[in-house]
Every structure is written in C-alpha cells, then in structure tokens.
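Priority: medium. Attachment 1 of 2:
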C-alpha cells in the first residue's frame, strides 16, 4: 500500500519539481542516515554521504520506476551504494598514500626507465578517441572504473571493454 506522501513525492519526482527533495529529506533522511551509519561510523563522513545520496537521488529522479521498486527501496539502494563507494574510495586513498621513507622514486636512474614508454601520450593519441578518453581518465586522471563510468556517462561494462581494447592496441604499438 503506497502512502499519500509517497504518491505525492513520486508525482513531484516525475515532474522534476524541487519540492520532492524537501519532502524526501523530511520523510526519509533519518532512515537513510541510519542505513549509512551502519556502514560508516564517522558522523561527518556519514553526513557527507547522506548529502551525496540526495544529490544522486535528485540527479536520477527521472529514472525512478514505481513498477520496479518501492520508493524507499530505491532510496535505500542509492544511499547504501553511495556509502559503500565512499568506504572504497577512502580505503583506496589510504592505500595509495605515498610513503616517502620507503619510496624508491628518487633512486631510479635513467638506465632503469623504459625509454620506449616515455612517449605513451603520443601513442595514446593514435588510438580511437573512445579508447583515448577512457585510458586518459583511468591512467592520467586517476579515476576508478566506476568513477570514469559516472563522469563520462558511459556504462561500466563499456569502460572495461574500452580499457581492455585500448591496452591491447597500445601493446601492439610497443611490441613492434
């Protein structure tokens, strides 16, 4: 049984009416915050994730389909996935922090560098643009595949395929 307020919110979402976000926040913020807090214990980060979730909810509001899921289920999935993404990005950030004391970056001599790959950007420019865009996002802008998918508005599976094909093409160039 769909409540009157839920019907109203769905109707506002379908019309792109910004009143929907206020009603969503008023009626669902506490529950979604509870979902997020089960994944992220830090209050400030959890609040950030709640805000990110509402931004995504608004951005994807036209995609909500009441025949596929109840409104709360759809909201829950967005909040849950946003929280999981945040945990992963924080873990990746911590894992990727440079440890200067143990870094060998200053010990590399020019003889150890593979001179053939120093011109990678030049060779990247020879690939089809669709592969260039994906490789540039992943390797030069440091995006994850998920981030590139969202930023470039390309399905994740397509990002993975273009990465694989692009790397295969680069391998052909460097094999010669």
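Attachment 2 of 2:
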């Amino acid at each position: 049984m769909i409540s009157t307020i839920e019907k109203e919110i769905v109707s506002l979402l379908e019309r792109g009416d910004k009143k929907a976000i206020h009603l969503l926040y008023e009626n669902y913020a506490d529950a979604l915050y509870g979902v997020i807090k089960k994944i992220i214990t830090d209050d400030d980060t959890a609040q950030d994730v709640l805000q990110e979730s509402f931004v995504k909810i608004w951005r994807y509001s036209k995609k909500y389909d009441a025949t596929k899921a109840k409104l709360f289920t759809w909201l829950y999935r967005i909040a849950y996935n946003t929280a999981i993404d945040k945990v992963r990005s924080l873990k990746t950030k911590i894992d990727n922090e440079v440890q200067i004391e143990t870094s060998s970056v200053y010990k590399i001599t020019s003889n150890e560098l593979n001179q053939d790959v120093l011109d990678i950007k030049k060779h990247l420019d020879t690939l089809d643009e669709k592969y260039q865009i994906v490789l540039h996002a992943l390797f030069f802008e440091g995006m994850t595949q998920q981030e590139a998918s969202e930023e470039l508005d390309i399905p994740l599976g397509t990002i993975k395929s273009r990465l694989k094909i692009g790397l295969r093409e680069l391998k052909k160039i460097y094999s010669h």
